[in-house]
C-alpha cells in the first residue's frame, strides 16, 4: 500500500503552520507503530507453559508480510485530516516560537 499525494491546502486548513501538521501526524504515526509492536509482542509471547510455570520461548517469525497492514503514516494523516486528533501546544514550544 503506497501513500498517495496529499494537498498542502488540506493540511493548511487545520493549521497555518505546515510544520505543526507534520509534527502532529508523525507523533501519531509513532503511537500507532508502538501499539502494533506491543500487540505483536503480546500475541507472540502469551503462550504459558504450565508445566514449567514460565512463558514459552519467543516465536521467531520469518514470514511477516508488511504490505498487509496499512502504513502508519497513512493512518495518522487520515486521522489528522478527518479531525480525529487533538493536540495542544506546550508552553515550552510557544516560548521557542517567540
Indicate the structural class.
mainly alpha
Order of helices and strands: HHEEHH
Q: What is the first-to-last residue Cα distance? A: 40 Å
- Major sheet characteristics: 2 strands, antiparallel
The mean pLDDT is: 77
The rough form would be described as extended
- Helix percentage range: 40-55%
- Percent of residues in beta strands? under 5%
Instruction: Count up the helices.
Output: 4
Cα-atom Rg, whole angstroms?
A: 19 Å
Number of strands: 2
In spatial order, strands of the major sheet run 1-2
Q: Uncertain runs with pLDDT below 50, 5 residues or more?
A: none
Describe, in plain words, how this protein is organized in 3D.
- It is a single chain.
- The chain has 98 residues and is mainly α.
- The chain has a domain at 17-84.
- It is 52% helix and 4% strand.
- The chain has helices at residues 8-14, 18-44, 72-81, 91-97, and strands at 48-49, 54-55.
- The chain has a two-stranded antiparallel sheet with strand order 1-2.
- Helix 2 crosses helix 3 (72-81).
Describe the structure concisely.
The chain is mainly α.
Strand and helix map with partners:
Layout: H1 8-14, H2 18-44, E1 48-49, E2 54-55, H3 72-81, H4 91-97
Antiparallel strand pairs: 1-2
Helix pairs in contact: 2-3
Based on the model shown, name its key terms.
98 residues, mainly alpha, two-stranded antiparallel ribbon, 52% helix, 4% strand
Amino acid at each position: 500500500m503506497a501513500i498517495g499525494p496529499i494537498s498542502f491546502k488540506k493540511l493548511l486548513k487545520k493549521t497555518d503552520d505546515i510544520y505543526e501538521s507534520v509534527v502532529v501526524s508523525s507523533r501519531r504515526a509513532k503511537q500507532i507503530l508502538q501499539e502494533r509492536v506491543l500487540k505483536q509482542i503480546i500475541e507472540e509471547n502469551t503462550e504459558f507453559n504450565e508445566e514449567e510455570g514460565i512463558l514459552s520461548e519467543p516465536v521467531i517469525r520469518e514470514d511477516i508480510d508488511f504490505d498487509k497492514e496499512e502504513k502508519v503514516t497513512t493512518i495518522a494523516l487520515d486521522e489528522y485530516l478527518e479531525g480525529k486528533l487533538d493536540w495542544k501546544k506546550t508552553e515550552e514550544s510557544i516560548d521557542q516560537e517567540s
